[in-house]
Amino acid sequence: MKSRGTLQSTPRLPHPSSGMAIAWASLTSFLAIAGLISTYQNAHAQTVRATTAPVQVTVNSPLDGEIKADEVVTLREAIAITNGVLNKGDLSEAERAQITPSTDHSRIDFDLPRDNTTIRLQALLPTVTNPGLLIDGTSQAGYTLAEGDASAPAPVVALTPAEDTEVFRGLTLAADKVHVRALSLYGFTSIHQTTATTPPADIFIAHRLLPSKRLKEDNPQVTYPYDDERDLPPQGILIEDSYLGITPQGTAPTGSRSAFGVSIYNAIGTRILNNQIAHHDGSAVITSVRAEQTEIANNIIEQNGLAGMPDAIRLEGDIDGTKIHTNQIQQNAGSAVYLFKPEGSVMIEKNLIADNGQRFRRAAILLMGDNHHVVNNTIQDQPGPGVVITSYPTSQRNFILDNRFANLDGLSIDLIARENRFLDRFSRISINRVDLASRSNTRVQDYQVGDGPNPLRNSDQRKRDTANRGLNTPQFLSSEFYLMEGAVNLDGEADPGTEIVLYKVMEEGKQGPLNEPVTMVKSDEEGRFAITLTDANAGDRFSAIAIHPDYGTSEPARNAVVIDLK
């Protein structure tokens, strides 16, 4: 299916059914006890797990319920076995036959009946606390990779709540190097009440909590920096080749949708690779306290945020070293990537970002903070600007490089000014306003949809109150340049020592849009620059951005047009 822009995308996932709205506040505000302690763990106090030899456990039943000695091994029992809290002596002979020694780490495989591979959960599963555990959906019969097809096939094994049962999480991971592969998880949500409980998600990642017998003695909050072993974040978790929010048939659930896809409450080095994440009421990926060195790559992220947090990827907390690359992020309700008061910087590179803002008018990418890089992305078909960089708390040295923008409602790059009184007079005139000279601050909506072109930075105050230190846009010396003997010279001014990137403009607009990068030059000590083009034609239009190593990237310049000299 082709989008309204220039690139062809993969076929869309079917539109989801309507579901219960999830009104969600900042995840850092909530972490109740129930989230990491399952019913089984409450009944059996969680003690320090003794080191056990790695085992391979085969789940051969889709049933769920109370752990007991019978003829089959359920996923609940397999997790308890690999956690070291369910001993072989408590199992039947038939169950013990499904446990064999493993080499370097424990693993959970599947041998479910071919016609019944959906595990319908009756309650929360135990938290995964065995470092290095592999939960491997590729082990199930029927999961095969077609010859010559490099993409992963659809998962066969699925996890979802049982009918008329509320289970607000699919998997809860709290150990290093846990690997989840080729599973379908959907339908995990909770009924929203006056006070939110714990973050619901298909997969929730956080540190381990205290043993249940001590929960009343010691509040299990996160201490950062970490003074208590229980607060140490798990590292190196990998989630790949899975369907999150999607049935194995590639469709939206017929019942409740999941609230979130992957919720990283407290972890380091989580990798989310080659998944399809769709049909969530809230975000596909959301972070909270700590999510350093997260990698989100090669995923299809579509149709999320339909009844709650609207942004496909929402990052807050400590996210330093996070990389978001080579994803298709399309048809989500708000922004593709939204940063909310983060610590650290991110790289957003080589993504196709198209047709977002289905529910709210927002920027395709919204940045807060310093030292972010948005490089070589295609950003198109957005009912808002391309990249908005806010001025609060401070935002500078944010570099927007080698991207292609198309069909936007706003600037390709918009730097927010905290008190843009110039624009308040000329761009936001309200029929209810009489005193145009009255003082006015930038509005909340401006931090989501941009505040339009900034005036020239002509004071230190302008540097302080504007994103990227209010780096001036390049100014062409004329709005028209003549084509003579097959060449045209484009001359202009910018801040001294900036790189000037020339863009070709192929759509309507006074400042951009920045459709296609053409070439780069550097302004001299006086801020002058000159660009000679030998392949331009009469009627071609151009814009430009400035890049300064200490400030970042500017907004687009007002367009200039090439005219044939006759």
Terminal residue distance: 45 Å
Strand order of the largest sheet: 2-1-3-5-8-11-14-17-20-23-26-29
What is the helix tally? 6
Mean pLDDT: 84
**Outline type:** elongated
Rg from alpha-carbon coordinates:
27 Å
Helix content: under 10%
Low-confidence stretches: 1-51, 421-440
List keywords for this structure.
566 residues, mainly beta, twelve-stranded mixed β-sheet, ten-stranded parallel β-sheet, 40 strands, 29% strand, elongated
Task: Please explain how this structure is put together.
With 566 residues, the chain is mainly beta. The strands form 5 sheets. The chain has a 12-stranded mixed β-sheet with strand order 2-1-3-5-8-11-14-17-20-23-26-29, covered by helices on one side. Strands 4-6-9-12-15-18-21-24-27-30 form a 10-stranded parallel β-sheet, with no helix packed on it. A 9-stranded parallel β-sheet has the order 7-10-13-16-19-22-25-28-31.
Topology:
Layout (H helix, E strand, L loop, with lengths): L38 H5 L11 E5 L15 H9 L9 H4 L2 E3 L5 E4 L7 E4 L12 E3 L20 E5 L7 E5 L5 E3 L1 E3 L15 E5 L32 E3 L2 E2 L17 E7 L2 E3 L2 E3 L6 E8 L2 E3 L2 E3 L10 E3 L6 E4 L2 E3 L6 E3 L6 E4 L2 E3 L10 E3 L5 E3 L2 E5 L4 E3 L9 E3 L2 E5 L4 E3 L5 H6 L19 H4 L10 H6 L9 E2 L3 E4 L4 E6 L5 E7 L10 E7 L5 E6 L7 E8 L3 E2 L6 E5 L2
Parallel strand pairs: 1-3, 3-5, 4-6, 5-8, 6-9, 7-10, 8-11, 9-12, 10-13, 11-14, 12-15, 13-16, 14-17, 15-18, 16-19, 17-20, 18-21, 19-22, 20-23, 21-24, 22-25, 23-26, 24-27, 25-28, 26-29, 27-30, 28-31, 33-40
Antiparallel strand pairs: 1-2, 32-34, 34-37, 35-36, 35-38, 38-39, 38-40
